[in-house]
Amino acid sequence: MPAQQKKIIFCIAGVLSLACALGTAAAIGTQRWVTGTILCKTGALLVNATGQELHKFMGHIQYGLFHGERVRQCGLGGRPSRFSFFPDLLKIIPASIHVSVILFCTVLVVFALVGTGFFMLNAFGSPYETLHGPVGLYLWSFIACSCGCLIMILFSSEVKIHHLSEKIANFKEGSFIFKTHSEQFANSFWIILVCSLVHFLNALLIRFAGFEFPFSKSKDPGTPTGAVDLMY
């Protein structure tokens, strides 16, 4: 492939990697990872609410990695409140998983920025044969893509398996019990998915530029063929 086309491909990959780094950094600070509705089970059972009456006992919740807000309704209007994971909810959440999600988000941002630098260096500079060259580009893209996948797996398990929304809804609630009525992943979570796909796409762009995947075996041009051996 001509050098000019390779520069264009590297520039595109670098811009995509930079966009992922900025998007992930913005997603970390938001509370739009999970949104849902919570039902005041105790209040609904007290008045035997059914059908449309349940809306009077339906509240809302949304949260991210550091903070969130909830509106609890028990028939007497909404009670909005804000909360923070650190240190408020640290005792009721799976702290090791939650901290791991934040750590992998940070690693994703760092390696996306590193990948951006090396993509631009390969486009406009004089790349070296190791970390600055194709092997390094594959490495940064692979690490970033892997971090994105781990973030989604760990956070999904925290929400679905460990019932994070219910734990938050029932935090410091002595007399009322809240159940999760519905929950769905919001914009910030899907940004991580898009970033993982983009880093996988970057690896394909590197291959499209004409570079072999790492550890792939190439034929040695100096190795004699069978026909040459017969000549001797």
Your description of this structure?
The longest helix has 30 residues. The C terminus is likely disordered. The protein starts with a helix and ends with a helix. Helix content is 53%, strand content 15%. The radius of gyration is 25 Å and the shape is elongated. It has a single domain, classed as Butyryl-CoA Dehydrogenase, subunit A, domain 3, CATH 1.20.140. It has a five-stranded antiparallel sheet. The protein is α+β, with helices and mostly antiparallel strands. It has seven helices and five strands; from the N terminus they run αβαβββαααβαα.
Secondary structure layout plus pairing:
Layout: H1 3-28, E1 34-40, H2 41-46, E2 58-63, E3 67-73, E4 78-84, H3 95-124, H4 134-161, H5 164-169, E5 178-185, H6 187-208, H7 226-231
Antiparallel strand pairs: 1-2, 1-5, 2-3, 3-4
Helix pairs in contact: 1-3, 1-6, 3-4, 4-6
GO biological process, one term: equilibrioception
Keywords: Membrane, Signal, Transmembrane, Transmembrane helix
InterPro entries: Clarin
The total tally of domains equals: 1
**Which sequence of SSEs, written as H and E, runs from N to C?**
HEHEEEHHHEHH
Within the CATH hierarchy, at the fold level, what is the topology? Butyryl-CoA Dehydrogenase, subunit A, domain 3
Low-confidence stretches: 223-232
